[in-house]
Amino acid sequence: MATDERDVEQKLDENLLAVLPEGGKVMSVTPSGMSDYCNTYRVEVAMPDGSSQVFFQKESAGETGWDLMEAAYKSEITAHEFIPEFLPRPITLGTYKSRPNVHFYLAEFAEMIDDDIPGPEGYMSGLIALHTRSMGKSPNGMFGFPINTRFGNMEQENGWKATWEEFWSEQMRRYLDKEEAGRGVPDAELARLRPLFFEKVIPRYLRPLETGGRSITPALVHGDAWPGNIKYRTDGETVCAFDTCIFWAHNEMDLGVIRNPRYPLGKPYLKEYWKHVPISEPEEDADSRNSLYLLRNQVLLAALYPQDHKLREIFVSNMRFLVDRVQAEEDAAKKVSQLADSLQTQARL
């Protein structure tokens, strides 16, 4: 058990000290500023041999706070099993003895460079490793996760499903419901597009992955691989990923955020990924699937920040693009069919 002999009014809780290194002395506890949804701290501990160890701590109160801490711990510890070199080591999940309504998550602290986005090779290396190492290791061969994780502070429902289309459709319905409930303002265009999105777009671009003799092997996905969650460590070479909200999914789902125009990533990062991971069949649908998975990220951002009306406009525009693309495909197929019928009629005359 560590000790906290600092001359401060509020020292670290006994249950937190119990999981810090034996014989260590707490030297400093400073806000880390890495989260909008809970308190976060950098905890430095001096060791008896003169060295020091640094830890990252999150805390949050109430039942919701426990859910946030549990989601962070179970998501990070599962991802760490597959990519330990890319993820700070999770240590424990607990509740304060002095404040039983406050819960904490503890991990090793990773010193990172805030403003430097890794290039394609470094940025994608963690995702490539996570996907390829975990593929085929879903505990029941299904899509989902044992608990609901969090995108920011938003619950991500991860109930197990046998097919990817079913899992992803249910998640998207819930996210769209949350976005509409949080904004509280109806949108006529969204009301028009939403049923077409579920009736036409999703079956068109996800169903072929699991029909016609094709199948998807579930892989763990990061779930929120935007540049704020993938950074260089202070050596400027080693990449660190964190704040995962993982579940077992189609690996390409993680690539949707890479396409988001709000981040300086895009095609070079996607090309780097495809050097190492085969494109799922049918390959000709890969671009449309990427736009479809981008929509998830856009809807989640709109739900997290309902005061930003532009975010809804962005995802509605992308939904319209996908609906129009499917409609154009159907119109083209109809014309081909009509032409074939006409040629057959002429041949009989």
From TrEMBL:
> So what does this thing catalyse?
N(6)-D-ribulosyl-L-lysyl-[protein] + ATP = N(6)-(3-O-phospho-D-ribulosyl)-L-lysyl-[protein] + ADP + H(+)
One GO term in the molecular function aspect is:
kinase activity
Pfam family name, one: Fructosamin_kin
Keywords annotated in UniProt: Kinase, Transferase
The signal peptide stretch is none
Q: Please tell me which top-level EC class this enzyme sits in.
A: transferase
Is this entry keyworded Glycoprotein?
no
EC number(s) for this protein?
2.7.1.172
| Entry annotated with the keyword Kinase | yes
UniProt-listed InterPro entries: Fructo-/Ketosamine-3-kinase, Kinase-like_dom_sf
Q: Which PANTHER family match?
A: FRUCTOSAMINE 3 KINASE-RELATED PROTEIN (PTHR12149), PROTEIN-RIBULOSAMINE 3-KINASE (PTHR12149:SF8)
- What name is this protein filed under? protein-ribulosamine 3-kinase
Source species of the chain? Lasiosphaeria miniovina
